[in-house]
Amino acid sequence: MPDPIIVGTDGSPAALAAVEWAADDAVRQGRPLRLVYVVDRWAYGIVKFPTTAGDPLTLHAERALAEAETAANKRQPDVTVSIEIIEGLPAKILRDKAKEAAEIVLGTRGLGGFAGILIGSVSTHVAGQAHGPVVVVRPGWRDAHGEVVVGIDDSAECEAAIEYAVAQARFRGSVLRAVYAWQLPVHALAPEITYDIDGVREAQHRVAAEKLAPWRRRSEVTMLEDVVCGHPVDALTDASKAADLLVVGSHGRGALGSVMLGSVSRALLHHAQCPVAVVRP
């Protein structure tokens, strides 16, 4: 059986939006869907005694999973759904679940079992530390544009993001738009320094074309290039307005999840206007 698409759910509107997105993607990819609720007892100051039949947190988890399963089946009647309740820290459990998943799907913010520390902290941590794709979905999303956007640069870290974006475009029958954002060096603005702006712009176009060339040769997906002089967050946020999915890599290398996520990826989780997939190598 293929690896499942795993959704972290907790009964919140954002989590239900993630369930619906994941159900669609599971059908596109021909994968089963697994709904996971992580019961975090420490977030509520409850001592960890053995769970009883009337335990309120477990009962809430069961209700949330039942609601999520109903939403998934209503959205995609043919999807295969399984459910799982696990006790522990939501961010750690879902990060570790990435090892057995094709992708992890989360809402932008949660309640119940996910509301332990800060709003959005679970999504930020998992996207920053899980190996493999992590998709963060906002309530109100819809597939309406027929386009997947991927952020590219000249680093090796974006290769995994390109691979995932090409696959998503193929599954969807969508166009893939690759956005390459570049910025002028600070010294280019100094009047005493001669600087060939046109030459720099041409060089950036060559970098973008060379990055996509291997993927053009091996895939039939239609690929477009946008080479933009500007900050990556601004360029990708603008592109997200006409996208069904925005895919980015992560360059963060710090010890904390929010640092490991990288400043661009973290900003896009807050500002992008479509679901965002963060793909770490």
From TrEMBL:
Q: Which InterPro entries match?
A: Rossmann-like_a/b/a_fold, Universal_stress_UspA, UspA
Please indicate which superkingdom the organism of origin belongs to: Bacteria
UspA domain mapped to chain residues: 3-138, 148-280
> What's the short name of a Pfam family annotated to this entry?
Usp
Task: Give the family this protein belongs to, as stated in its UniProt record.
Answer: Belongs to the universal stress protein A family.
What is the designated name of this protein? Universal stress protein
Species this chain originates from: Planotetraspora silvatica
State the taxonomy lineage: Bacteria, Bacillati, Actinomycetota, Actinomycetes, Streptosporangiales
